């Protein structure tokens, strides 16, 4: 075997990488020039769906000889993925800052050089989500349903006075497992992400979630100088 037998063209490598990333979640409708998500993608985080879609766009040149755009504007992503603009914009900024995607004028796309890193990011996020889901399911099986006296329910919510809103802890765990804390985040960053996803949480409820995660070594914290003020920031241990 000669060394030339071990060579591979850039296009072949890129096509293989794209297929490996999208094969379980994406199908191409060549006639309609559309990308269709499979049911397996329904439970994926919006961040991962954006990455999958932008990677899939790069695959059009291997699917059809027709000219099909391989980049997309935020408005096109919003329509294709059914993600509200207020939710989509922070995701695009985060992916751009992480160098997973790049802007070209109004358009966003991915480069071939980023595909291995995108594949690792998607695999890690899906793996973390799967572990969290199984752990939550196991925990629910062990817990016995509690009967709350009718007299303890507050009007309009069905919850006792002072009780935590269901889902806040689970959503916070998903922020950790989904990569939100891959870079330092402040308390305000966390509250804004809750609100972006439709979870209205009081600012005073967030420190207990953060401190618990720090004690359990899911997050680490340090003081940083932001806008002239010393504030605590939180991120996943490297």
What is the approximate shape?
Answer: elongated
Q: Specify the CATH class of the largest domain.
A: Mainly Alpha
What structural category characterises the helix and strand content?
Answer: alpha+beta
Q: CATH topology of the largest domain, what is it called? A: Arc Repressor Mutant, subunit A
Largest sheet data: 2 strands, antiparallel
Please provide the ordered H/E string of secondary-structure elements: HEEHHHHEEHHHHEE
Q: What does the radius of gyration come to?
A: 21 Å
User: Gap between N and C termini, in Å?
Assistant: 42 Å
Oligomer state equals single chain
Total number of strands? 6
Helix content: 40-55%
Question: How would you describe this protein?
Answer:
The chain is of the alpha+beta class and 238 residues long. It has 2 domains: 107 residues, Winged helix-like DNA-binding domain superfamily/Winged helix DNA-binding domain (Arc Repressor Mutant, subunit A), CATH 1.10.10; 70 residues, Winged helix-like DNA-binding domain superfamily/Winged helix DNA-binding domain (Arc Repressor Mutant, subunit A, Orthogonal Bundle), CATH 1.10.10. It is built from 9 helices and 6 strands.
Architecture blueprint of SSEs:
Layout: H1 10-22, E1 26-29, E2 34-37, H2 46-58, H3 60-63, H4 74-81, H5 85-97, E3 102-104, E4 107-109, H6 115-142, H7 168-177, H8 187-196, H9 206-215, E5 220-226, E6 229-235
Antiparallel strand pairs: 1-2, 3-4, 5-6
Which features does this protein show?
238 residues, alpha+beta, Arc Repressor Mutant, subunit A, 2 domains, two-stranded antiparallel sheet, 6 strands
């Amino acid at each position: 075997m000669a060394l030339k037998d071990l060579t591979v063209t850039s296009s072949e490598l890129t096509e293989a990488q794209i297929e490996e990333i999208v094969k379980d979640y994406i199908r191409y409708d060549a006639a309609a020039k559309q990308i269709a998500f499979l049911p397996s993608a329904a439970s994926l985080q919006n961040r991962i769906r954006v990455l999958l879609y932008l990677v899939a766009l790069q695959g059009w040149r291997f699917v059809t000889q027709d000219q099909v755009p391989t980049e997309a504007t935020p408005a096109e992503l919003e329509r294709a993925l059914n993600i509200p603009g207020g939710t989509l914009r922070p995701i695009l900024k985060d992916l751009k800052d992480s160098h997973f995607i790049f802007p070209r004028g109004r358009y966003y796309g991915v480069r071939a050089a980023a595909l291995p890193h995108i594949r690792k990011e998607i695999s890690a996020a899906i793996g973390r989500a799967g572990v969290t889901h199984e752990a939550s399911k196991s925990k629910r099986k062990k817990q016995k349903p509690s009967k709350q006296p009718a007299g303890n329910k507050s009007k309009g919510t069905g919850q006792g006075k002072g009780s935590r809103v269901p889902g806040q802890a689970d959503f916070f765990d998903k922020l950790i497992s989904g990569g939100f804390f891959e870079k330092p985040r402040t308390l305000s960053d966390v509250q804004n992400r809750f609100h972006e996803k439709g979870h209205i949480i009081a600012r005073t409820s967030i420190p207990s979630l953060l401190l618990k995660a720090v004690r359990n070594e899911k997050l680490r914290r340090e003081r940083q100088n932001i806008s002239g003020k010393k504030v605590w920031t939180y991120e996943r241990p490297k």
